[in-house]
Design goal:
It contains 5 helices and 4 strands. The chain is an alpha+beta fold and about 100 residues long. It has a single domain, classed as 60s Ribosomal Protein L30, Chain: A (2-Layer Sandwich). It has a 4-stranded mixed β-sheet with strand order 1-4-2-3, sandwiched between helices. Helix 3 links the parallel strand 2 and strand 3. The termini are close together.
Length: about 100
């Protein structure tokens, strides 16, 4: 899963951060949101509320360190997958 997120990031198919993800969500350009398990309650509520409004699924399976390592960045709590293929691939990996 971490490798898939890294690949999507290199392909420029990831919105990084809460604000960027929500901005892209409003333009209906996000197909899946990956939320860190250790994100704050406020961040989780904000992301879940927006995702529900726009009908996008949210997954919480990685912590902030794992998401950050996949992207080569630090302290990332939220990413939005902006490609339908990558989002389906991640969902399939979770189901296994």
């Amino acid at each position: 899963m971490i490798n898939t997120i890294g690949l999507a990031h290199r392909a420029r198919k990831v919105a990084v951060g809460t604000d960027m993800t929500i901005t892209r969500l409003r333009t209906k350009n996000v197909f899946l949101i990956v939320l860190a398990t250790n994100a704050s309650h406020t961040t989780k509520k904000k992301v879940y509320d927006k995702a529900k409004t726009y009908g996008v699924e949210v997954i919480e399976v990685l912590n902030s360190d794992e998401i950050s390592r996949a992207l080569g960045k630090e302290d990332i709590k939220v990413i939005g997958i902006t490609d339908r293929g990558f989002s389906q691939l991640l969902m399939n990996q979770i189901r296994k």
